[in-house]
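Try it yourself: sequence plus nicotinamide-adenine-dinucleotide, in.
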Amino acid sequence: MTHAPVNVTVTGAAGQIGYALLFRIASGQLLGTDTPVKLRLLEIPQAVKAAEGTALELQDGAFPLLAGVDIFDDAKQAFEGTNVALLVGARPRTKGMERGDLLEANGGIFKPQGEAINAGAADDIKVLVVGNPANTNALIAQAHAPDVPAERFTAMTRLDHNRALAQLAGKLGVSVADIKKLTIWGNHSATQYPDIFHAEVNGKNAAEAVNDQNWLENEFIPRVAKRGAEIIEARGASSAASAASAAIDHVHDWVNGTPAGDWTSMAIPSDGSYGVPEGLIASFPVTCSGGSYEIVQGLEINDFSRAKIDASVQELSDEREAVRKLGLV
Ligand code: NAD
Ligand code: LMR
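Structure, out:
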């Protein structure tokens, strides 16, 4: 072991994503196999007992990298000294419910968590918001953490990125590993735009390799954008193991870097790049290195992509307006 233990706080630890996530963190897949972790689990009081049960199982996993598990029902304590915060706890969308309906219910959760991060997290804190509506929840948390650099608050579109990789690989009969430079733009919602115009498949342009605008517009984009709803319809519950896996990928790449010649998708505070209003937490193509990320610059955006990006960004602006009206940002 080459590092001191890293404190990782997971909210909603007793939920279905938490159950899939914690064991992978404990095994070293979040930060790397030479980094011990101390888990700090936050739950609501009614779910603390279930979180304690998961902690017993974590102990039974005999993970060499797991340096401790503490359970809290108080946000201030849970974020004390934390280096990585995975904000998962929220109310999942159920059948027939639109994500917009969740804004108010979840706003109340992310404000106090932002305040707690501001008050007690470590200086190098990195935050990933998974709980929906993830982009706007991240905005709320960030608004209440004025002493933390804004860019440390991110939201998850890596699941969408991974879904798009899998769909494109299926269409072209290649492995996901053959695909590079795919991008999810905008919101983690049905308006998101999975962009293959800059993607490469074994070095060839992906849009040219597909050469099927009908598939792109009427199958690929809606399939990826509505995959969350498809999973809910099939499982009767929202995606869990795939969401946990994407959270691992997001933080792993943020901390350890993206591979050379590739990029990934992260929802991050906009600096105005690609015409996305500054401050909105929107998904962009990013590269990571040395523990920080950068937006990939200089991509040519065609008219088709422009309209799709604008529509998703408009939804994010509307969500920001809605939470402004609720006094949450
Ligand atoms: P779940 O209902 O199984 O678990 C949520 C847990 O959060 C529960 O145990 C609950 O007690 C806890 N919780 C609620 N309020 C809390 C608070 N204030 N502090 C701490 N814990 C709290 O839900 P899940 O399936 O694990 O999903 C969690 C969230 O992730 C949902 O909002 C879901 O929509 C979202 N999600 C996001 C993505 C993405 O790609 N961004 C993908 C899948 C799911
Ligand atoms: C998902 O993408 O699977 C989740 O965000 C669930 C949802 O509410 O769509």
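One thing you can check immediately is this: The first strand starts at residue 6 and ends at 11.
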